[in-house]
Design goal:
116 residues, 0% strand, 5 helices, mainly alpha
């Protein structure tokens, strides 16, 4: 299926913004606010989580691997939603990010959602 030029531009812009968001988030885990990971009892895992976040975001951005990035970021955001739920925090932001991930996935790869 051919993707329209407008859909392609929109998907690239949103994918770029999401990738920037995840890279910023990972840098916070690595350099800016590592104590936040200690507060949620994940301090020992912060480097692995940040590297996974960076890898997933880059896979999501690149056209040949964006399907894998979509699945990895979906899993990551699912974990974030659960963490927010169990911590008594709002799930609005991680849910919106997850919906944006799937929206971009649909714009880039509509066949990814076809059931045969």
């Amino acid at each position: 299926m051919k993707i329209s030029k407008t859909s392609n531009i929109i998907s690239w812009v949103i994918a770029g913004l999401l990738t920037a968001l995840f890279l910023f988030s990972a840098s916070g885990k690595l350099f800016l606010h590592p104590e936040q990971m200690d507060q949620i009892k994940l301090g020992d895992w912060r480097i692995i989580i940040a590297l996974g976040e960076i890898t997933s975001a880059l896979l999501f951005l690149l056209p040949k691997t964006n399907k894998y990035g979509t699945l990895l970021l979906s899993s990551y955001m699912g974990g974030a939603i659960i963490l927010h739920m169990t911590g008594g925090m709002s799930i609005v932001m991680p849910t919106v990010v997850l919906l944006l991930i799937w929206g971009v996935a649909y714009l880039r790869n509509p066949e990814f959602f076809k059931i045969n």
